[in-house]
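Incident review: delayed structure delivery

Summary: a single-chain prediction request sat in the queue longer than the usual turnaround. Root cause was a stuck worker, restarted by the on-call engineer. No data loss occurred. The affected request and its eventual output are reproduced below so the record is complete for anyone auditing the incident later.

Affected input:
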Amino acid sequence: MMYDPDIHPTLHQTTKQYKNSTAPTTNHFYEKLLLLKDKMNTTTAKQIAEKRHLFLEQFLNQFFEEWNAND
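Output delivered after worker restart:
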């Protein structure tokens, strides 16, 4: 399932909880992917992560615009 507005992202306490999650795909963005940028150590990694982070945000913005579109 890509998205369910009734299932909110959760910051899991353990790796096991995260791996056992059946949450929708969009939750993965908030639970992991959007957190990676701040975990980079080198200047190059930070620059790459910043670009990828912006891409993820743009994707989510577009997705939610289309999800909420009124016909």
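Verification: The mean pLDDT is 94.
Action items: add queue-age alerting; document worker restart procedure.
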